[in-house]
Specification:
Layout: E1 6-13, E2 20-27, H1 31-38, H2 40-46, H3 66-76, H4 83-92, H5 102-108
Antiparallel strand pairs: 1-2
């Protein structure tokens, strides 16, 4: 589903500090990697045809999609999710500028958590 991202192995330690392991992480990639993996035609049809010249070259001033970010915050806030996961998400996730913590962005942009998804995505993007 996230074809433009790079799936990489990353080490982890469980929240209780116990078990360590390796999992998959959905990481940023490059336009060149997308084209290498999926081909120039797929890039042209899926992006350039809509006036999008880059997937990854937007620079540091790009902001998260409010509907999707709200969905992520709702998901990590659900009952039964360890509160440390939410705290880690808010404090250890940064915007593209690599300086602004997600928590700080949400405090400065309260509209994000009140942005409802379009009717066609309510079920999918409501946490």
């Amino acid at each position: 589903r996230e074809e433009e991202f790079d799936l990489v192995e990353a080490g982890f330690t469980e929240l209780d500090g116990g078990k360590e392991g390796v999992g998959l992480l959905c990481a940023a990639s490059t336009d060149e990697k997308f084209i290498e993996t999926w081909g120039q035609e797929r890039f042209d049809v899926g992006y350039r045809a809509y006036g999008i010249e880059t997937i990854w070259g937007w620079g540091a001033d790009i902001r998260p999609c409010a509907v999707y970010l709200r969905h992520c915050v709702l998901a990590v806030s659900k009952e039964g999710v360890d509160s440390r996961a939410k705290e880690s998400f808010l404090d250890e996730t940064f915007l593209a500028d690599r300086e602004t913590r997600l928590r700080d962005y949400l405090e400065a942009s309260p509209h994000v958590l009140t942005t409802e998804p379009p009717a066609s995505l309510v079920e999918r993007y409501s946490g």
